[in-house]
Amino acid sequence: MDLSKHPCFSAKAKEVYRRVHLPVAPRCNIQCNFCNRKHDNLDENRPGVTGAVLKPSQAMIYLKYVLENVKNISVVGIIGPGDPFANPDETMETFRLVQKQYPEMILCTATCGFGIGPYIDELAEMNFGHVTVSVNAIDPEIGSKLYAFVRHGKRTLGPKPGFEVLLEKQLEAIARLKAKNITTKVNTVVVPGINDGHIEAIAQKMAELEVDILNCIPLHPNNESNFAHLKEPSDAFMEDIRKKAGQYLPQMTHCERCRADAVGLLGEKNSKKIMRKLQQCAEMPEIFDDERPYIAIASVDGRLINQHLGKAEELLIYGKKDNGGVYFIEARETPKPGGGKQRWEDLSDMLSDCRTLLVTGLGDTPRRILSQKKIDILELDGTIVEAAEAVFEGHSRNFMVQRDIKACNKKNPMAGMGCGF
After folding, report:
1. Which of 3, 14, 21, 352 could form an SS bridge with 7, CB 3.0 to 4.6 Å?
2. pTM of the shown model
């Protein structure tokens, strides 16, 4: 069990290592009585809220930006704003993309445990690092007071039968996660007057299942929830509960009740710059089933294709809208000159998600290296929008292709330049 780089599992790591949560999972299959489902919120620092919901392809654009602008990110997680496995397609697609593009990252998720079962084998194959399962009771009489309903397939179950199915799925999931050697944490929300006298029993049961760590979280009274009238337990009260639970399992004592879009150190608020980028990414058209969905463009002014690759300090990246138009994604800084062949190797890696490069010219070495990486190279004159739309739609670009005058008339290189030759 390596907890050294996961801030949620290690009090020491939280001072150094940062995490990013990708909010791709808005739906939930249970209704907790302490939860408010209104997840669109920029201010509150609690689970279940986010500034925007992303599709998997949008999440990858956002993740790239975060990793370039926030240091020491060690963990990429999905914790909502609903339940990740009430949104299994979005969750698993995002994890697959992250693992492929950033294999060094720790992958992490937090779930009620209800829907994770069918995906545990694949998570293990992905060398998935850490899973948190929320277990708030093991007694049906207590559990039925914590949940309004549970959706099981097409059925909506009431508090008691719903909880019984939920608990069965939770215990099964935890046992299978541990059998696959996946580090497992259990979160337990402490609700005064409901389950506060039950925490020790939960801890004992989780210890039997060989859970790695227990996180007792004080109730956060959420407006418009069924438990909005209850008060948050005091620090002294929580300290006593953790002491009792600590007889059975190691305790997490530094939880900050993270947002579904949290970025940075635990307890650190998202910057306005990060939040703007999150919302911008959520507005981008989704890109489906294409490993190379973008094109790269060398431009001096952001309007025309008018720059030689060797002089480009950055390349503009464009994607295709669902309606056939194009949209600007980002500017990527090119490798610095002076690296010889390695400069172009690095550039080809940087453009691994681009199908085409549009420039006014380039040398033989970058042409050869980029072509080997299956990046189509076009030397064009024209506007970015017109050329990009033509590339994406497969239309003719002959009217924009630059002509190699010297190649056309080696005897008279001035021919065709309007000089009368």
Report:
1. 14
2. 0.70
- Tell whether domain 13-282 is in CATH 2.40.40.20: no
Q: Which residues of 372-401 are buried (b: 16+ CB within 10 A; e: fewer)?
A: eeebebbbbebebebbbbbbbeeeeeeebe
In whole angstroms, what separates CA 379 from the centre of its chain? 35
Work out whether strand 183-190 and strand 106-111 pair parallel, antiparallel, or are unpaired.
Answer: unpaired
Question: Cα separation of 158 and 166, whole Å?
Answer: 11
Phi, psi at residue 155, to the nearest 5°?
Answer: -100, 145
Class of domain 294-408: alpha beta
Nearest to 7 by CA among 98, 134, 129, 136: 129
Q: What is the pLDDT of residues 11-65, one digit of tens each?
A: 777 777 889 999 999 999 999 989 886 766 666 767 788 999 999 988 998 999 9
Residues of the chain short of pLDDT 50, as ranges, are 1, 395-399, 403-421
Sign of CA dihedral 402, 407, 409, 413: positive
CA distance 329 to 334: 16
Residue 3: name the closest of 241, 247, 254 by CA.
254
Going edge to edge, which strands form the sheet with 326-333? 326-333, 314-320, 294-297, 354-359, 376-379
- Among all chains, which residue has been given the structure tokens 């993740």? 63
Helix axes 88-101, 56-69, angle to 10 degrees: 40
| 3-state SS string for 119-144 | HHHHHHHCCCCEEEEECCCCCHHHHC
Helix axes 364-372, 341-350, angle to 10 degrees: 40
Q: Is 30 helix (H, G, I), strand (E, B) or coil?
A: strand
Cα separation values, 12 from 4, 124, 129, 132, 272, Å: 8, 26, 18, 19, 27
Domain ranges of the chain: 13-282, 294-408
Helix (H, G, I), strand (E, B) or coil at 16: coil
Q: Is 417 exposed, middle or buried (0-12, 13-18, 19+ CB in 10 A)?
A: exposed
Q: Which residues contact 155 (CB under 8 A, 6 or more apart)?
A: none
